[in-house]
Amino acid sequence: MQLLFSESEGRERAPIGGLPDGVIAVTVPVRRDGQGHVPRNRRGQLNIEVVDLIAEGATNAFEPPPTLDSRELIFALEAGRRSWATIVDYFGPSKAQAVAIALVRSGGVILRCAVDDVLDLAQPLSWRRSHSWSLMHIDILHDLRARPDPDALRWELVKLMAVIPQLDAERALLESIAHGSPLRVPPGSATSAGAWSVYEHALRAAIVWFPHQASGADRFTANDLAGRAFLNSKAWTPEREAAFANLIGLSFDQAVDKADTDLRLRGPLRWSLGSVAADASVAVPWISLPARGLRAAGDVECRAVGVLLVENADTFEKVCKVPGVPDEWLCVWGEGYSSDGMVHLLRDLDLPVAAWGDLDAHGIQIIDVLEAKLGRAVFPLGMDVHLWQKTPHRKNQQPKSVEKDKKLAAKLASIGPHALRSLAAEIAKYGGSCEQQPIQEQVLPQLPRLLQDVLGGVVRV
Fold first, then answer.
1. Mean pLDDT, the chain, as a whole number?
2. Domains, the chain
3. Of the candidates 183, 150, 152, 186, which has an alpha carbon nearest to the alpha carbon of residue 169?
């Protein structure tokens, strides 16, 4: 079972005896200065009084123990946290521990337990619903509690989709379901949903969204679309968003306006939300994922050797098409100064970061600010003095802006990133600014080599 990026701070495998098969114990972090730390005594040794039990190895998004009936499964899903006394009251003293361990093995809960003086597992204290089940619990509870007539509901959706040609393939899948079958997501659905409720919400949103989009009207907000499609403006969940985006073939931030900051990515990163997955390695030309959602929900798997930030949107799209680059590097549109969500992602990934920015004072400062936020070096490329000297600069720059840029460049020439100080000194002396577009043809063919040079210059501890 994987922990969230934001959950993994301060955790490591704990050497505890008496563990049941199929589970492992991890340390419970202590909080200092807003960060999680592994609990240690003054001699630096592990100081373990409680542990969390999680599944050993990967688990499916939602595969509950077969021994639990619907009523017991509702109890496990309803509350984010349960005390051990409440669990024993519900299941009984003879059954509670076996149920809890079964739920841990299936990835449904994280079981907190005490540890005795000889580092053996002691009594359970509480359980917490896992993030994977938390993503799906609203929809699963809906399916467990509300049992509409399956054939009537499928027929209703088929009729609604009949006038939406973009949903013909999905409609055909629903029509092929045998009469009397339970509500299940049809195999091959473009939504990639696992729960019926996720699937149904994605369909209903698409049924409203496609005609609105074709009309040329202003883009829906996320809340407006939810209000019309679900009759509940707050009904979006991360999994429903991902399923809807898969169905319409467009990232959620491109389809609707929403509050979370989205990151445009291309490269070997996969984000799994329950049974729905977003894969940045196969997206064309890129995929957009919510910055907060990446940390707060789902599992992130990244096989990249490094991260390449590109300041300009047009250049970013061209970088995504350079053969070999997005196979090894996670390419990210920087969109100017890095958002907090992007900084958190870069910290969590803990990979070498290269950056390609505009050849001007602000392009240098963007990297300087990012280095300060990350607390480590960022490797600039395509930003050397030679390119700046031989490339045409922006025309019609205001004199006041030029003077401000020269002052900023002079400051960065002394305290900015070491690799960019010579460029900053030239800008401070002569002024001028050069965007990425004029130098694309010179840098893009060299990009694989430049990135390999970055890896060669990284000092690994």
1. 85
2. 5-140 (no CATH), 147-254 (no CATH), 260-456 (3.40.1360.10)
3. 186
